[in-house]
Amino acid sequence: MNIVIFAGGVGTRLWPLSRKRSPKQFEKIVGNKSTLQLAGERLQPDFGWKEMFVSTNEAYVPIVQSQLSEVPPKQIIGEPAMRDVGPAVGLVTAILAKEAPTTPMAILWSDHLVKNDALFRKILKSAGELVAENPDQVIFVSQKPRFANENLGWIEFGKEVRHKNGFSFCSLVNFQYRPDRKTAENYFKSGHHAWNLGYFVTTPRYLLSQYKRFVPNLYSGLMQIQAAWQTGRYHETLKKVYPTFEKIAFDNAILEKLDPSSSLVISENIGWSDIGAWEALKEALEEAKDKNVTQGNVLLTDTADSLIYNYTGQLVVTIDLNDFLVVNTDDVLLVAKKSSVSKIKQLVQNLDGTEHEKLA
After folding, report:
1. Rounded distance between C-alpha atoms, residue 354 and residue 334, angstroms
2. Euclidean distance between CA atoms 265 and 249, whole angstroms
3. One domain, residues 231 and 294
4. Start and end of every MannoseP isomerase/GMP-like beta-helix domain (predicted)?
5. Shortest CA distance to 196 belongs to which of 271, 267, 279, 123?
6. Count of other CB atoms within 10 angstroms of residue 349
7. Do 345 and 213 belong to one domain?
8. Average pLDDT per run of 10 along the chain, which is 360 residues long?
9. How far lies 73's CA from each of 9, 80, 222, 270, 322, in Å?
10. How many structural domains does the chain have?
11. 257 plus 287 within the same structural domain
């Protein structure tokens, strides 16, 4: 099975650590490794480095090569322009459809945490076996919800359709992105909803057929790029065609239009967390809800339920803080209530055109 790890996002909600020049997936957020490195390492030893592809922005290819040097260089796919996730997934799918059209492929993301690595690998292998049996399907890997999360997508599943290696694979019913509070609480209690991680297993041939069906203009351009892959015309064709693609989310292009009868869902507790924002990182790492999460040289007094990250040699001291976020880098110190983290993205956008633009 081939594994595709997507590592092209900017990640403004983790500013000031995450910047345009070096987004969150390349920074040391958990321990001494980036989430990209963790994403590659958690797949070992069941999946080898030669089975991995990385999709990223062209500007970040050298960073990926330095952090995942075991991945063959030709399998690090650089996008010459940011055209959203629909074209990004399509590009890798078109390439793999030429290389190995019916070999199962898993789509994963580089800015997540997965604590139950062995279980995760077993699920991927089991999903791959099912897809090998029936190449014209998509299997979604989801997380059993830990709470009524309003900030994530949810996936609704029905009855068990297949049983494989001790796992239940159920029918797909529906998707819902960021439900309101009451709806999220109902989902959490239902027993038939899970967090939608954006992880799935399918074959390149089948997924590409869905691009042809639902986004024919995008498909046409992907075919031009595919024809040039592994030839001297590839980079020229990529730079000419890819920037012309409409910006479209993968959900809008493909996911919302998939035939549910060709899809399965597995929901297990793989210890998954989306650490796209500071409060999500705290939830992923905290030992208990009111405990602090720290990194670097810090000294806390009467501080609770806070995240204090210090990336400098300077000592950071906090006194009488509760429910706070403090992130100290060489050129920016951020202090905010955890409940105000949603304002970070807009703040970073507002830096454009100002004297602080280089800090974005």
Report:
1. 18
2. 21
3. no
4. 296-351
5. 267
6. 10
7. no
8. 91 85 84 90 94 95 96 96 95 97 97 94 98 97 93 93 97 92 94 96 98 97 97 97 96 92 97 85 85 95 96 96 95 92 88 91
9. 20, 16, 21, 30, 46
10. 2
11. no
